[in-house]
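Issue: ligand-bound run for H79 - logging full I/O for the record.

Environment: standard queue, default settings, no custom constraints.

Inputs:
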Amino acid sequence: MIQRDDSIALGRGQRPGARQDPRLDWWRDAKFGLFIHWGLYAIPAGVWKGTPIPGIGEWIMRFARIPVAEYEKLAEQFNPVAFNAAEWVSLARRAGQKYIVITSKHHDGFCMFQTAQTRYNIVDATPFGRDPLKELAAECQKQGIKLGFYYSQTQDWHHPDGHGNDWDFDETKKDFDGYIEHYVKAQVRELLTNYGPICLIWFDTPMIIRPEQSASLVELCHTLQPDCLVCGRVGNELGDYASAGDNKIPRTAVDADWETPATINDTWGYKQDDHNWKSTSDLLHKLVDIVSKGGNYLLNVGPTAEGIIPQPSVERLLAMGEWLAVNGEAIYGTRPGPIQGVEWCRSTARPGKLYVHVFDWPRGGELRLSGVNGVTGAYLLSDPARTPLRVAQSGADLLVFGPTQAPDPIDSVVVLTRGSAA
Ligand code: H79
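Outputs:
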């Protein structure tokens, strides 16, 4: 079942004017990105002192109320020697993903990059001693994929002035303004100075951040890298693009630039007991559903403490990539199509072409489409010969006569040509 809600309207919004901003053009065409949640939480992997902790894995510090002094010891054993930036970037590329977003600092406050602002970072505090974001940045350049950084700007359960840790620190004594001004901004500056071109900063959980603070973070990003986009979760409706809620897909097409961040199982950070992997079919249907409504799909993987992306995630991403290798024309660079609100299909479009994504192939292969006009021809996108399918008008509906069996078990794409386009 596809989960739907209208959370885009609930305030993770795009700033006025950004809808027309050409800096978003690549992002509007990209449609599919890889989210990576990787940090110290991959070590407990959902289990603390032998007790499974329910909920998303990267929240274990808060859910188990682990004191800073205990949690930070995890750094001493973090040694992901199996990490291979080339393999991760290659996976994204083969999956058909156009951008990668990785956690530079999640709510637990541990920095997965070299920073001068704290020694609580992967280079200074772990036996690993390498900066994985540096290695990823170099590989992304090499393999032609864009790189963005997730950065938790409001919640920081390790920093005494960050938001969210009320078990080590007295929330009433915190200097949150100072934390934003001197710590967050200094780190954002590092992230946008030391890693080459960064396509976006993915802020999260704005919570108590004030409008002028959100605005100054946006301005800082744009000053350091004018082409760097800022996710709507920077807060106060000031992002370059809007963010749906986690795993939320709006009911209808949305006239905004928006993105659904989503889990491939039920956690972001790796959990050893979470085997609730979504099927390839479900994942592809979600991608198509989102794209048909004008959004991007940022699909997450949670690598292990060794630096391995779990095999079930790899398999699903590669299977999605195989479908996209055949059908990508109906995804990348498209806009929502005119057929909306139909259960059995979705539609995407580009000038001269309309793509009908058939999830449930009708018995007999006869497709009945409403709200489509000016069609001059039809063929299956998976058919290299582009053998014409017979079309006929039936009252206000268009009939397309396809093969009796579904050409694709997940999504068969029928191309309808319009106007003078071939
Ligand atoms: O990074 C991933 C999640 O860790 C992060 N966003 C995605 C991309 C995220 N942060 N918060 N949430 C997701 C929602 C969590 C809400 C809850 Fe709670 C945590 C509900 C109950 C515990 C916050 C704390 C609201 C009530 C208590």
